[in-house]
Amino acid sequence: MRHSTTDETHKAQWVDVEGGQIPLSTHGAGASAILFLHGWTLDHRIWQPQFDDQALAQSFRLVAIDRRGFGASKAPPDLDREPEDIIAVLDHLDVDRVILVGQSQAGRAALRFANQHPGRTAGLVLVGSPIGGLEPGPAPGEDVPLEHYRALATADRLDEMKQLWAAHPMIQGGSGTTHAPMAAMLANYTGQDLLAPAPQPGPDIGGLGAITAPALVITGTHDTAWRRRVGDAIAVALPHGTRAEIPEGGHLCNADAPAAFNRLLSRFAESVCV
Asked: Which end of the chain, N or C, is more open, meaning fewer C-beta atoms within 10 Å of its C-beta?
């Protein structure tokens, strides 16, 4: 099943994946593709500031999906299957190699994909992504209390969970321009993933040396100290990693500091597509 808008450069489509379908939107007509993977409780709309950037759209083919279990996706949540979903999206679009942008939780899927499919990974951009095996861990208040959130969702107290998450420093940091779109996406969040079996542990800091793709690791200066420290460690652990911070950007720095983020992304994408 496929749906398209009347705009020839901005199309919405459905892609068959294990257990259902996921929607994707495309914009631009560049020869090289950038695939955006949104963070937890979000959907493809978090990437609107990138789709609105005419320079990016002229140079690249921009693709954003609703990951399984989020947004309008019709596939059940399963973080472990997301690398397979990326393959399905690339094959659907007839894209051989892609630049992957993984935001927060989706960085785990992006890292797994780059490790499993090096031949199809032109570049890797990680935005506020977590990692396992790094000590010390986050300070109290910096972590995401998933077990508490899972207990609230299981007890049919999803609204309470959403209120707590909306007040978390990872959501409140930054310029404040993300608050309205974040609220809209959070309102649509169904908590399916909290009711599903917990995924396998994500990539460990010690395993990143096997990833050969060039990588850019980004955080906002107003992200939590833990996520910024994780960004430093990932950039060092990746054989071809580089590090950047966005002034005035929070955890969702692509949305609350889009001009700076888009410049970084464009320069990186151009460097790996030469």
From this structure: C
